[in-house]
Amino acid sequence: MGKILIIDDDELFTKVLSGYIHQYYPLLQVETCTNPLLALPAMKRGDLALLLVDLEMPYLDGNKIFRFATEAGIDKNRIVILSGRDAEYLHEHFPMGTCLAVLNKYEAKQKAVLDMIFNSLQRKAVS
């Protein structure tokens, strides 16, 4: 089963996104964490199909979480960085190839990219 971990200190955003995934991609399992420090053990388990990380968070920001995740063995192509910042800023800090995607979490057009990723994971979960 495709397991997704969402790390974002915005509780409303995590609820909305996880609810959306549950509704439209029922084969995917979603875990959310609003405190990045509490997410560290989940990243060490090695069973994640996808890691969604907010760039701006207290205690540990998305850059530090990204480094921790890759050092824990999570493939960079299974990590999506989310932020309220514009695309230019995001691509400057996470150039193409650094991770699977960098997305502005408030732009409606960016939802299409997440849907493509979730669709792919759901198809893999079926096979």
SSE order and pairing:
Elements: E1 2-7, H1 11-24, E2 28-33, H2 36-44, E3 50-54, H3 62-71, E4 79-83, H4 87-93, E5 101-104, H5 110-126
Parallel strand pairs: 1-2, 1-3, 3-4, 4-5
Description:
Residues 3-127 form the Response regulatory domain. The modification 4-aspartylphosphate is found at residue 54. With 127 residues, this protein is an alpha/beta fold. It has one domain (2-122): Response regulator (Rossmann fold, 3-Layer(aba) Sandwich). Helix content is 45%, strand content 20%. The chain has helices at residues 11-24, 36-44, 62-71, 87-93, 110-126; strands at residues 2-7, 28-33, 50-54, 79-83, 101-104. It has a five-stranded parallel sheet with strand order 2-1-3-4-5, with helices on both faces. α4 (87-93) links the parallel β4 and β5 (101-104). The relative contact order is 0.18. The mean pLDDT is 92.
